[in-house]
Amino acid sequence: MGLFSNQFLNVVEWEEWREDMIFWKWKNKEIKKGSKLIIRPGQDAIFLNNGKIEGIFQDDGEYDIETQIIPFLSTLKGFKFGFNSGMRAEVLFVNTKEFTIKWGTKGPVMLPTPALPGGLPIRANGTANFKISDYVTLIDKVAGVKDTYSVDDVKLRITTVLDQLLMKWISKEGKDMFNLQANAFDISEGIKSDLDMQTSKDGISITGFSIMNFNYPEEVQQMITKNAAQAMVGDVNRYQTLTMTDAMADGKLSGGNSTMGNMAEMMMGMTMANQMMNNMNMNGQQPQQNMGMQQQPQQNVGMQQPQQGAGGDANIPKFCPNCGSPTNGAKFCANCGNKLA
Fold first, then answer.
1. Residues forming a β-bridge with 204
2. Which of 208, 207, 149 is nearest to 22 (CA)?
3. Which residue among 105, 109, 127, 328 is least enclosed by CB atoms within 10 Å?
4. pLDDT tens digits for 259-297?
5. How big is the chain by its Cα radius of gyration, in Å?
6. Cβ atoms of residues 96 and 44 within 8 Å
7. What is the pTM for the complete model shown?
8. Domain boundaries, the chain
9. Which residues, at least 6 apart from 104, have a Cβ–Cβ distance to it below 8 Å?
10. CA nearest 141: which of 149, 129, 151?
11. CA dist., res. 108 & res. 319, Å (int)
C-alpha cells in the first residue's frame, strides 16, 4: 500500500520558500492522480504547459488537482489520469508582496558644473519598492530561462541604470547642485518613472522610490556648511564673532592653552569693546555732544546779555543754557527744569 501511495500521490507546493524570493518554479515532476496543490498566503500559483500559461490560482488553501484545478486549465481541462500515467506540467509560484530594497550609488556620480571643470562628485542612497505586475511578461522574459528569481536580481537591475538616471534628473532644469536635498522629491519622482519603464519589460512595477541623502566630498560639504552658517547669521561681522567664539570654546576645551583660542579671545574682546563704543555713540552720546556744541553759543549769548526777570534777578539768563528755551525771568527752566539762578 505504501508503494502505491508514493506512486500516485505528490504535493505541489513552494518547497524552497524564502522571504526574498520573487518566484520559484516547481517542475520536472509528474503530477499523479490524487495530488494536492498548496497555496500559502501571499502566493499565486501559475500552471504552465510547454511554457504557456494554463491557469492562474490566487486564493490560498489546499486543492485537489484532479477535481479542483484541472477543470479550470485552458487546454488540459479534459485531462484524465491513467493508472500509470500522470500529468506533466510546471507550476510557477509567485510572491505577491511588495518588496523594499536599499540602494546606493556604486561610485561618485560626476555632475557637470561650471564651478568644477571635472564635475561635482556626489553619492546618494535611499530605498525603492517594487512588485510583480505582469505574469505573462515575467514568464516570457524571466521565468522562461530561470527557475528562481530573487530580490537581489531586481536590485542589480535597478542599480545598473541608477547612476545614469541620477545624473539625468539632477542636471535637468538646472537643479541647484549644492542644495540637492531640497529637490529630492522631484528627482525621486523622475527616477521612479524611468525605472518603472525599465523594469516593466520584465513584468515588474516600481511602486516607490526615495532618496534619503546626498553626500558631497568633505571639502564641498565644509563649504556648504560654512555658507549655510553665514546665511543663518545674516551678517559678516556677527559671523566672524561666531567663528571666534568657536575658537575660544576650542581653547577652553583644550585646557585654555590653545594659541588660536587665546588670540581669538583677545580679538573677541577688542571687537566687543569697539561695538559697545559704537553702540553708545549711536544711542545718544554723540547727539548729546552735538547738541551741547549747538547750545554753547546760546549759553554764551545768554550770559553776555543778562536781563532782569520778573523777580528782578539780573543773574538769570534770557535763555536756558541747558536746552535753549526762553527763561522769562524764572529761576528754573520751564522746559527742562534746569536751575537758572
1. 132
2. 149
3. 328
4. 555 555 566 566 666 666 666 666 555 544 444 444 444
5. 44
6. yes
7. 0.61
8. 2-95, 99-220, 247-300, 305-341
9. 123, 124, 125
10. 149
11. 82
